[in-house]
Amino acid sequence: MATPPDVLPAQSVPDQPSPTRGRSAGDGSALDDFAEARIVARRKPGQWTAAAVALLLAAMVVGSVIRNDAFQWDVVGAWFTARSVLDGLALTLWLTGLTLGLGFVLGTVLATMRLSGNPVLRTLSWTYIWIFRSTPPLVQLLFFFNIGALYPTLGLGIPFGPEFLTVKTVNLFGPTLTAVIGLTLLETAYAAEVIRGGILSVDRGQLEAASALGLGRWRVLRRIVVPQAMRAIVPTAGNMLIGALKNTSIVSVLAVSDLLYSVQLVYLQSYQVIPMLMVATLWYLVVTTVLSVGQYYVERHFAKGATREGLPPTPLQRTRAALRRAVKA
After folding, report:
1. Could you count the other beta carbons within 10 Å of the beta carbon of residue 150?
2. 99 with 180: CB under 8 angstroms?
3. Which helix (H) or strand (E) holds 86?
4. For a disulfide at 75, which of 19, 87, 275, 285, Cβ 3.0-4.6 Å?
């Protein structure tokens, strides 16, 4: 009677020698040394050489700036916190915040029009963005400043009918109002594209899943679309903020007392051109640095949950960790 295969006795298999069996004590110690060996990163002398050269060149530039008496650092220090300079800085910050805030409000409307199914709204929005993105900001400001040559008066009334209210553009469009209108219309065009790109970056499958769960449109917008769109909007919006800060310098051609125009008034009287320009440059550097730090932490806030590994440590956290390791050592 044949025995089923599943009950046959297993054939004896000779013991296979283990990797360390039959080796001498010397071989075993060599394997232990190999297991305890530390992995050393590959040396990259080319990168270190390039870094040393770059650091040397940077030190030479900094040294030449500090030792150059033509910068007149004593004059820079005397005018850095002068009342006229601080007033110009305050107007620059006010123009930046107002024009960018209004630009994003109007840009949201334009972005909604671009994403709508109505061809008329899409065409009007695209035409506006095309015009204001295609012309230089200085040309736009000068155009609005001389709007009185085209329209001496502006009226409110029935189209092709009587006008109920009429105002002269000479009395309406002053330098400051012209700067606000021109910069706001410019930022609106860029903000519309930034917001549209952020909305389009959200995966459409998540919107379909939210609709399948029965969530309302407002809740989907607030809980799903906006948090994910902000990850794409914030970096570009931060660049727009810094760009808007620097774009305010062009209003000096309209005699608006911003930061640049304030220092220009000083060096036109004292002929200290270089030190006064350095005052404006340093203030722009200070403000843009503060805005960049704020942008970094806003990006971290909206990046929560984007990766499984979690957020990388901030520079402050890395500094604290390095100090703790140094103290323990």
Report:
1. 8
2. yes
3. helix 83-115
4. 275
DSSP three-state, residue 156: strand
Q: How many residues does the chain have?
A: 329
Q: Say if residues 107 and 192 touch (Cβ distance below 8 Å).
A: yes
Quickly list DSSP for 202-231. Answer: S-HHHHHHHHHTT--HHHHIIIIIHHHHHH
Whole-angstrom Cα distance, residue 71 to residue 216?
62
Decide the pairing of beta strands 153-157 and 163-168.
antiparallel
Those residues with Cβ within 8 angstroms of residue 258's Cβ, 6 or more apart along the chain or in another chain: 88, 91, 92, 95, 248, 249, 251, 252
Answer yes or no: are the C-beta atoms of 249 and 288 closer than 8 Å.
no
CB-based contact 223:273 (threshold 8 Å): no
| Chain-centroid distance, C-alpha 286 | 16
- pTM comes to 0.75
* Predicted confidence (pLDDT) per residue in 83-123, tens digit: 999 999 999 999 999 999 999 999 999 998 998 888 999 99
In the beta sheet, which residues pair with residue 157? 163
